[in-house]
Amino acid sequence: MNDLTEAGLATASNVPWYHPVGKECELFEYAFRNRLPLLIKGPTGCGKTRFVAHMAARLGRPLITVACHDDLTAADLVGRHLIGDGQTVWSDGPLTRAVRQGGICYLDEVVEARKDTTVVLHPLTDDRRILPIERTGEELHAPDDFMLVVSYNPGYQNLLKSLKPSTRQRFVAITLGFPPREIEERILVAESGVAPAMATRLVALAGHLRQLKDHDLEEAASTRLLVYAASLIAAGCDPVTACDAALVEPLTDDPDTAQALLEVVRASFGT
């Protein structure tokens, strides 16, 4: 990947820390340079949001993030008229602000948004790169430094919540997963300050817990939860207590499953 040294780009000191797993950084930059929208797929807590923040800082572009949800409307993205002080004024939504500023608009968990909402993205994701604002009559042309990035967890997809093929095929796509053991250990040390030996034990524990996904657990133990556990341990918390609070309890509400997971934790730490 080219060294980003152009005027206006971020320095290493203010770039959120991210450890590449493959060629995702190169692909992100290629997409940005060629004005292509990007879709990031991956499980919960694997680093999708951190990756986008890292790349936005490296590229020196403002990042506007939207956490998508069931009630998200097109007006929430594009904007709406507001009434105040006896007058009506137009207020840009986050997508419109990103287009005007030439920033990166990141729609997190885009499948959570209603399908009639995501249709507003279509004109921005083909060669037109425009954002029609029907309520004001404007038609914004996205500048070269605007980029649209969306993400979702494929494990959440079902008949009711999925990305329409007509939408998905408008994006260049990257799949992120949990990092290989060596990289995940480095992440824990860098993010939490935990001792390398403890990071190794935590990653080994995560490997055991991830084998239970789709059996006793709906979600796998994520890198984010491992960082939480490592942070508690680095602060002086007992490892079993830390893993119970940061791994076991967030993964399940079922008492029997929680007890079984806790036994795995205790076995991992020899207690």
Task: Give the helix/strand layout.
Layout: H1 24-33, E1 38-41, H2 48-59, E2 63-67, H3 74-78, E3 79-84, E4 87-92, H4 94-101, E5 104-108, H5 115-118, E6 130-133, E7 138-141, E8 147-152, H6 165-168, E9 172-175, H7 181-192, H8 196-210, H9 223-234, H10 239-251, H11 255-268
Parallel strand pairs: 1-8, 1-9, 2-5, 5-8
Antiparallel strand pairs: 3-4, 6-7
Helix pairs in contact: 7-8, 7-9, 8-9, 8-11, 9-10, 10-11
What can you see in these coordinates?
It is elongated, with a radius of gyration of 21 Å. It has 271 residues and is of the alpha/beta class. It has helices spanning 24-33, 48-59, 74-78, 94-101, 115-118, 165-168, 181-192, 196-210, 223-234, 239-251, 255-268; strands spanning 38-41, 63-67, 79-84, 87-92, 104-108, 130-133, 138-141, 147-152, 172-175. 40% of the residues lie in helices and 16% in strands. The strands form three sheets. The protein has a five-stranded parallel sheet with strand order 2-5-8-1-9. It has a two-stranded antiparallel ribbon with strand order 3-4. It starts with 23 loop residues before the first helix and ends with a helix. Helix 8 packs antiparallel against helix 9 (223-234). A hairpin with a 2-residue loop joins strand 3 (79-84) and strand 4 (87-92). It has two domains: 12-175, 3-Layer(aba) Sandwich (Rossmann fold); 181-268.
